[in-house]
Amino acid sequence: MFGYVRINKMELKMKEYYKYRGYYCGLCKYLKENFGEISRLSLNYDITFLIILLSSIYKSQNSITKERCIVKPTQKTLRIVNDITEYGANMNIILTHNKLKDNIEDDKRIKDHILFYIHSNVYKKIDNIYKQKSEFIKNKLKELSELEKNNIMSIDKTSNIFGDIMKEVFSYKEDEYAHILGNIGFNIGKYIYILDAYEDLDEDLKKGRYNPFMNYIDNRENLKSKVENLILIILSFIEEDINKLELSENRGIVENIIYSGMYLRFINIMKGRDNDEKSI
Question: Does 243 map to a domain?
Answer without folding.
Answer: yes
